[in-house]
Write a structure and sequence with these properties.
Strand content: under 5%
Radius of gyration: 21 Å
Order of helices and strands: HHHHHHHHHHHHHHHHHHHHHH
Helix content: over 70%
Mean pLDDT: 84
Distance between the termini: 40 Å
Number of helices: 22
Shape: globular
């Protein structure tokens, strides 16, 4: 059996396992990674080099930097301050979506949602506004906000890692060229027309979730809260001005993480607990599949097949649309990180086969892969609020599907302008 066929079989296995989640996502990635070595498709160094990828180091560091903001209760305070000024239900939805969108641009989407869910539930109880109308916009904003920066979501860095071997990359805020307009239009939509599509349930007494219990951060010294915010801001500034100061993103992240532990803002034990190993294994392991798709020629075979289906001279706009919609569909039934990890190397091969700028297709892949709005299993944050909001599957479809349409329209307008296929 040729290396290309073996790689395609592992790709098929990964797709099925990512969709069904019969075994954990990280374990699936490691089976693929080790399997590619055992079958001789890749050498050990090629298969495991994803785990020393600079983006994996950056990811670990930012888990700790973001974790400090959550552990000290500073994220809780930020959320509370912003939402306090909203008097009407619509204004509250806008305030929630703005703060979650901005925070998830620099912190874990899931972490941001987890911190602000109890804040919003508390506000709902005090104001009389139904939590079912507030929690869904919260998790949607968390997903949209992930497209505000390079570190906003795992998929963003997977695309970056896919581009780096061919000498290309995205700037720190380049995702926001598409992500920010989607967030703005999404907020306007749910404050106006989409407001009527939000579920209007009275949660049953036994539906109260773990988030109903708000964590008491009163014992945390004020200086720790301030320090966690200051170090986060300084770390982000160092990343934004990476080229000017000559320090790589991963190094800036590591400096921030080290300072937080050194000054005891976050204990070493809590810092290690804040690292999501499932994501690290998924990220590092799946990069081996990307390497195998490239080295075995399997990626080129898939690219040739896709281009063949689209015709001899496929329209760049149609290809971008097809990639975007395919990622949208996949991400609603499997991890958005897994979706991007599977599609990114294939998109790169397709773009190279056409002689086009791969950044255009990969941006469509990342943005499409973040549109996990239409199912409760699309992303962890969606699942978190199912019980608290007493949501049904169709609640997500009704409220989330229009947002996917909005994201598609906005992307198809901006992508060809901002990321031309043949610059």
């Amino acid at each position: 059996m040729s290396p290309a066929v073996i790689t395609l079989l592992f790709l098929a296995f990964a797709v099925v396992m990512f969709v069904t989640e019969k075994i954990p996502l990280g374990l699936t990635s490691m089976i693929v990674c080790v399997g590619l070595v055992v079958t001789g498709v890749l050498g050990i160094s090629d298969a495991f080099k994803g785990f020393i990828d600079s983006n994996v180091i950056l990811f670990v560091a930012m888990f700790i930097v973001g974790g400090a903001l959550f552990e000290t209760g500073m994220a809780n305070e930020i959320g509370g301050i912003v939402t306090k000024f909203a008097k009407s239900e619509r204004a509250l939805i806008v305030a929630i979506m703005v703060i979650v969108g901005v925070m998830s641009g620099f912190l874990s989407n899931t972490g941001t949602a987890a911190v602000l869910i109890p804040v919003v539930i508390g506000i709902s109880a005090k104001s009389g506004f139904k939590r079912s109308r507030l929690l869904m916009p919260l998790v949607f904003a968390a997903a949209m906000g992930g497209n505000m920066s390079l570190i906003g979501a795992p998929g963003n860095m997977i695309a970056q890692s896919t581009l780096e071997p061919v000498g290309l990359k995205f700037g720190f805020f380049e995702y926001a060229i598409v992500g920010l307009p989607i967030l703005i239009v999404g907020i306007i939509f749910y404050a106006t027309i989409g407001f009527k599509l939000l579920p209007n349930h009275d949660p049953k007494a036994d539906d109260n979730s773990v988030f109903d219990e708000q964590v008491d951060f009163s014992h945390v010294p004020k200086w720790k809260k301030v320090m966690s915010l200051v170090i986060l801001v300084l770390t982000l500034l160092a990343m934004i001005f990476e080229d000017a100061i000559g320090i790589k993103l991963a190094v800036s992240g590591c400096v921030g993480a080290i300072l937080l532990i050194l000054f005891r803002v976050i204990p070493e034990k809590e810092a290690l607990k804040s690292i999501d190993l499932k994501t690290i294994f998924l990220f590092g392991g799946t990069l081996s599949l990307a390497t195998a798709l490239d080295k075995s020629g399997a990626g080129q075979m898939i690219a040739d097949a896709v281009i063949g289906l689209l015709g001899a001279n496929p329209s760049p706009l149609i290809l971008t649309f097809v990639v975007f919609i395919l990622c949208c569909v996949m991400t609603n039934f499997m991890s958005n990180t897994a979706t991007t990890a599977l599609m990114a190397p294939i998109c790169l091969a397709i773009a190279q086969g056409m002689g086009a700028d791969p950044r255009a297709v990969l941006m469509a892949c990342v943005i499409g892969g973040s549109c996990a709005y239409a199912t409760p299993i699309g992303m962890p944050a969606n699942t978190m609020v199912v019980g608290a909001g007493d949501y049904t599957f169709m609640d997500y479809v009704k409220a989330g599907l229009p947002l996917i349409v909005i994201a598609t329209v906005v992307s198809m307008i901006i992508l060809p302008i901002a990321f031309p296929f043949f610059p």
